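Re: S-adenosylmethionine structure - here you go.
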Amino acid sequence: MLDLDAEVAATQLAELTTRAAHLAGDHPIRDILDIGAGTGTGTFALLRRFPEATVTAIDTSDEMLSHLRASAARHNLADRIHPLRADLDEGWPTTPRADLIWASSSMHHMADPDRVLRDIHTTLRPGGLLTVIEMERMPRFLPDDLGFGTPGMEARCHSLLDEARTAHLPHIGSDWPSRLTAAGFTILESRDLTVDIPSPLPETAIRYAHATLSRIRSALADQLSPEDAATLDALLTMEGPQALRTRTDLRVHSTRSVWITTRTR
Ligand SMILES: C[S@@+](CC[C@H](N)C(=O)[O-])C[C@H]1O[C@@H](n2cnc3c(N)ncnc32)[C@H](O)[C@@H]1O
């Protein structure tokens, strides 16, 4: 799902790395840290933008890092990526001093994001850039009325997801500008990263919709009404008039909040 997300949002991510390069000005970007790198969405976008850079990709998950390693080898980029397994909740690992630190959809996972932000501040060279990206809601794909089931199924799923995420990820949707400022960063730019793809969707976006809705289906297995569960199952079948793949009314809509900041002291 993360790799498909990277493909679907590739243009917007490229715009964002261009903006970071512009804000870096004359400061060379050579050492980059990707915090909670996952399968490498940020890592690869940054390597493309900064051809002299290497990226230390930090993640607590061996599975994510081995996926990232395999992609790096496939793209002949293994010598520019240093995967580092570390649980940042347990403390800051030994890392090079960084010119740019990237934290995409990862800060809200931290048990104590303020402590991690202070460690990031220490690791970033003065004048370096920290970019934080947070997505408060999963992307949306479906029209309200699917022509079967009770209208509003996707909205009901999102309400349940919001409750679950608030319970399990208490820092989601928190006041990141205040936290960044308190940790010593100056916000250079706040922006939204919005992906809007109208119907009919290209194949990658349909696969992205399928992967995301499958994940929602399993995350909410115990909470969905039987009717909404059956509606989702019909959408997720590979064939048939109700299947995602055969529908012509899907779209992608997602928004992330982005803060590009710098260490000024
Ligand atoms: C939603 S994914 C985002 C991945 C990637 N940055 C992206 O934008 O696609 C969050 C990542 O943070 C990692 N993560 C969560 N808690 C962590 C921690 N305490 N230390 C290091 N990584 C962590 C997870 O393993 C996961 O790969």
